[in-house]
Design brief:
The protein is built from 20 helices and six strands. By secondary structure, it is mainly alpha-helical. It folds into three domains: 26-119, Fumarase/aspartase (N-terminal domain) (Fumarase C, Chain B, domain 1); 124-162 and 170-371, Fumarase C, Chain A, domain 2 (Up-down Bundle), CATH 1.20.200.10; 372-471, Fumarase/aspartase (C-terminal domain) (Ribonucleotide Reductase Protein R1, domain 1, Orthogonal Bundle). Strands 1-2 form a two-stranded antiparallel sheet. A two-stranded parallel ribbon has the order 3-4. α9 (223-230) links the parallel β3 (206-207) and β4 (234-235). α8 runs antiparallel to α11 and α8 (179-204) runs parallel beside α20. 38% of the residues are buried. It binds arginine (ARG). Arginine binds next to α7. Arginine is lined by residues 37, 41, 97, 123-124, 127, 333, 335-336.
């Protein structure tokens, strides 16, 4: 027995600590509870086991352990993985984190060989490797969830190419647009989000294993071999950097914050559009909730909660930035605090994308209401100005003429297209009968016939092109 002292109740498992040799006192119970990470890093078990198996195979290849030992480590670890999968593994706080829990259980199960697994490795490069493996999967999952949502948005867009709605600036009716054009704007945001995540994945997919605690190891590790086994693009180039920086998590949190920022914008529109004042859309009953007091209410809660959840994801990004800021090289225990915010981030984004994507196809559009709303706000005033410009009126003069015309129409309580030719000519003598082509919503939309514009012909091309890009 080591001289841990009489107070075995404080920590009767003190001898389990791998650093026991250096210590004469057991860990204080408060410290143990404060420093543990098993309560949140146990979710790294698959990555931890995968990394350990690769490491042990490599140790066998370079002759640091025998092939039999490597095989015994591998089967022991796979057995542990089975137990964890089946919920039959009890995690111990005394063993602090996922790495020590698994290693201790392995040694219990297979004996001496288990004690050799940690040769040429530290928890510092181990955790940095585990979290990269974990995040690589999360990023891939999130990208495919984004793509699922894009598919649903594009399906809706395909059905609404000829639907006319008001386009807004300052939330005031500005110009008529195709509803599909609006939906395609959402799609652009998601496409960039997916690109950003794919880009972050490149820098994420670098292997820290072999960096050991900070300085590398005196064993002749074959890092290319572990790299290959773990599917990393390359081993890290600098051991100090590899065990310490979490910038790749910050990039992911940032890309995820942008996803949530975009979702929150769409949520805001959906909430407005579903409101009694707009009545642009109807959200499926399955994606709404009611009020416990007001029987008439049908609330767009999904959109509100997703909008609300954007706050925590954006908050997590700040937490990670501040966590990393000012940390000296190399590994510091501060970095243990990276896990909860990044796990919460990927969980929240994934769940938000999933439910939002499911809600999208349940949305039906009140095409007539949208059309009528576009009729209301003098949305074709710019078309009238551009018509005058084509008749050689300088744009500033045209703007002035149309301003007066709109003022008159407001007084008459009529849309521009209801003004008679005489009335229109009283503001601009050059106006002729063909003006009504540009004053109609259809004419206005049709006229924006250039790449990136809202003419239905262009919008149709854009939907097709976006669908092709999505399938690639
Ligand atoms: N739980 C730790 C973390 O998440 C693992 C690495 C601990 N390393 C150490 N030397 N204490 O960062």
């Amino acid at each position: 027995m080591r001289p841990y002292g009489a107070d075995q109740t404080v920590n009767n498992q003190a001898s389990k600590k791998p650093w026991g040799g250096r210590f004469t006192e057991p860990t204080n119970a408060l410290v143990e509870a404060f420093t543990e990470s098993i309560s949140f890093d146990s979710r790294l078990y698959k990555q931890d086991i995968r990394g350990s198996i690769a490491h042990s195979k490599m140790l066998a290849k370079i002759g640091v352990i025998t092939t039999e030992e490597a095989l015994s480590i591998e089967s022991g670890l796979l057995e542990i993985q089975e137990q964890i999968n089946a919920g039959q593994f009890s995690w111990s706080t005394e063993l602090e984190d996922v790495h020590m829990n698994i290693e201790a259980r392995l040694t219990d199960a297979i004996g001496e060989a288990g004690k050799k697994l940690h040769t040429g490795r530290s928890r510092n490069d181990q955790v940095a490797t585990d979290i990269r493996l974990y995040m690589r999967e999360s990023v891939d999952d999130i990208v495919s969830l984004i793509e699922g949502l894009q598919k649903n948005v594009l399906d809706l867009a395909g059905q609404e190419i000829d639907t006319i709605m008001p386009g807004f600036t300052h939330l005031q009716v500005a110009q008529p647009i195709s509803l599909a054009h609006h939906l395609l704007a959402w799609n652009e945001m998601f496409e960039r989000d997916a690109e950003r995540l794919a880009d972050a994945r490149k820098r994420l997919n670098v292997m820290p294993l072999g960096s050991a605690a900070l300085a590398g190891t005196s064993f002749p590790l074959d890092r290319d071999m572990t790299c290959e086994l773990l599917g990393f693009d390359r081993p890290s180039r600098n051991s100090l950097d590899a065990v310490s920086d979490r910038d790749f998590l910050i990039e992911i949190a940032s890309a995820c914050s942008l996803v949530m920022m975009h979702l929150s914008r769409m949520c805001e529109e959906i909430i407005l559009w579903a409101s009694e004042s707009y009545k642009f859309i109807e959200i499926g009953d399955a994606f709404c909730t009611g009020s416990s007091i007001m029987p008439q209410k049908k609330n767009p809660d999904i959109a509100e909660i997703v909008r609300g959840k954007s706050a925590r994801v954006i908050g997590n990004l700040q937490a990670l930035l501040v966590l990393m800021k000012s940390q000296p090289l190399a590994y510091n225990r501060d970095n243990q605090e990276d896990k909860e915010p990044i796990f919460d981030t990927v969980d929240t984004v994934a769940r938000s994308l999933q439910v939002f994507a499911a809600m999208v196809p349940s949305i039906s559009f009140n095409r007539e209401t949208m059309y009528n709303a576009a009729l209301k706000g003098y949305a074709t005033a710019t078309d009238l100005a551009e018509y005058l410009v084509r008749l050689n009126v300088p744009f500033r003069d045209a703007h002035e003429i149309v301003g007066s015309t709109v003022h008159f129409a407001i007084e008459q309580n009529k849309p521009l297209s209801d003004l008679s030719l005489d009335e229109l000519q009283s503001f601009g003598a050059m106006i002729t009968e063909d003006v009504y082509d540009v004053l109609s919503l259809e004419g206005s939309v049709r006229a924006r016939d250039h790449f990136g514009g809202t003419a239905p012909i262009r919008v149709k091309e854009a939907v097709d092109a976006a669908s092709i890009r999505l399938k690639k």
